[in-house]
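Following up on my earlier thread - several people asked me to post the actual chain instead of describing it. Fair enough. Here it is, all 321 residues.
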Amino acid sequence: MSAYEDRLDPEVAMALQPMPPVFSPDTDLLEIRRAVEQLFAAHAEQLPPPNPAVIREDCSVPGSDDNPAVPVRIYQAAHRTSRAAPVLLWIHGGGFFLGRGVDDETFCEQVVLETGAMVVSVDYRLAPEHPFPAALEDCYAVLRWLNTAGDVYPVDPTRIAVGGVSAGGNLAAALALLARDRGGPALCYQFLLIPVLDDRHETPSSYEVTDARVWNRGVSLRAWAAYLANLTGEVPPYAAPARAADLSRLPPAYVYVEAQDLLRDEDIIYAARLMQAGVVTELHVYPGTFHGSYAFAPQAAVSQRAAHEHLTMLRRALSVN
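Reply from S.P.:
Thanks for posting it. Predicted structure:
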């Protein structure tokens, strides 16, 4: 067992042991993308089949300005009512350069079944082919569309939450900033799971993770470089929310942090700054967990506890009894 595994919960460490070193800092990002896609495909084969109680619909949302249309997958309860429902705008992870909305299909189903909300999962454009601000503008286009989609879907525009994991957590936090500064559409909640927030990687935890089986410092710095490739000068807060000077007037937030994650400290700092700015914020740090371990070790007791908490927080945020 490696020194890194020694710091993990025993059930979580068991799930890590067979994982290949796909996140080698010396590997080209597109090669990492291909390797992770194969890993996700193998993982998907172990998941339960689609739940017939949830209806899925793939469509495209008009892009902002001259940007292309944005693919989304919409999840709704099969026995939904005509009453306007809350919505979770969901943004997948993948370090800005990999991943698809369907990777989180099981989670999106659970949200629908447990909360009654509609979930809209965004397939945003990826770096390095499409650096900042492409992904964020795609997400903003979907938010604008949702705000006016009541004629087609039973959307309650006063209960639109944004959520995301990892790089998706970055985009969710950035979207909250962007919507505030552009005067809307309004969000009722930001649901941030292990969000990527700070390109500078200056915290102690950002130096602690070098294991190539998990998201580590070397590959993270390269991913940030690909995402910010078109920028010169100061990095804007819409790219790296930790750089935002003003975090006031943002929607209430939930921040979920995994203790053996290089992002741990930046997430804790961001949550503390939200509180200091008067934003209602709940922060949870789970010991013995690595970046994304709740998905790769779903049967571990700590993962089960986290999954229960995620759904509980969403039910509360979306005012679902």
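The CA atoms of residues 224 and 295 lie 23 Å apart. That should answer part of your original question.
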